[in-house]
């Protein structure tokens, strides 16, 4: 287990009560619940940043090549994918980028 560092938090009474209740419902100590919640929030920040970087890279590539996907095609693809995952359709055909510019 990695080393830990003691930290002190001053929480409003209502928030602490909500944390205690949520932790109890999940079968966790309040401490474990807060550690997990903070870890999850930190991971979401990293994932959001990676998503932003990936999006900007895709935009640069689209602008450089002129290739991309039309919104209607993407929406149809995701609708077909949802049906496929629900077992109601065949796997949709992969989208191929088209000249947009």
Keywords, separated by commas or semicolons:
two-stranded antiparallel sheet, mainly alpha, 63% helix, elongated
Main sheet: strand order: 1-2
- Termini separation (Å)? 53 Å
Number of helices: 3
- Shape descriptor reads elongated
Structural class, from secondary structure content? Answer: mainly alpha
Secondary-structure element series? HHEHE
Write down the Rg.
22 Å
Overall description:
There is one protein chain. With 101 residues, the protein is mainly alpha-helical. Helix content is 63%, strand content 4%. The protein is built from 3 helices and 2 strands, in the order ααβαβ. It has helices at 13-25, 30-65, 71-85; strands at residues 67-68, 98-99. The chain has a two-stranded antiparallel sheet. Helix 1 (13-25) packs across helix 2. It is elongated. The model has no long low-confidence stretch (mean pLDDT 95).
């Amino acid at each position: 287990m990695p080393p830990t560092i003691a930290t002190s938090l001053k929480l409003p009474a209502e928030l602490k009560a909500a944390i205690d209740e949520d932790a109890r419902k999940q079968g966790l100590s309040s401490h474990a619940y807060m550690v997990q919640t903070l870890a999850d929030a930190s991971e979401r920040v990293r994932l959001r940043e990676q998503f932003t970087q990936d999006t900007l890279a895709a935009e640069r590539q689209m602008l450089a090549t002129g290739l991309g996907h039309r919104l209607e095609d993407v929406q149809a693809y995701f609708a077909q994918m949802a049906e496929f995952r629900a077992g109601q359709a065949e796997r949709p055909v992969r989208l191929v980028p088209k000249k947009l510019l």
